[in-house]
Fold this protein.
Amino acid sequence: MRGDPTNNTAERALRHAVIWRKLSHGTQTDHGNRLVERLLSIRETCRLNGIRPHDYFTRLIEADLTGQPAPSPLGASPT
């Protein structure tokens, strides 16, 4: 929300990651940290663009298996 004087928008974007970290006790390695950062970033990008993360990851895996370029999580329609 533009012009919102609070940080509620940012807090809502981080809420899922904070809850996940609390429940799972985080990761044990830097590699695990990078993986979780990337997965949660893609999840939030999908959410903001009205895409189900499961659908995006399915298209991503299908593209990889068929040698196609990775689809964008920025709201582009599936091909």
Notes: Residues 49 and 75 are 5 Å apart (CA to CA). The helical segments are 8-24, 30-48, 53-65.
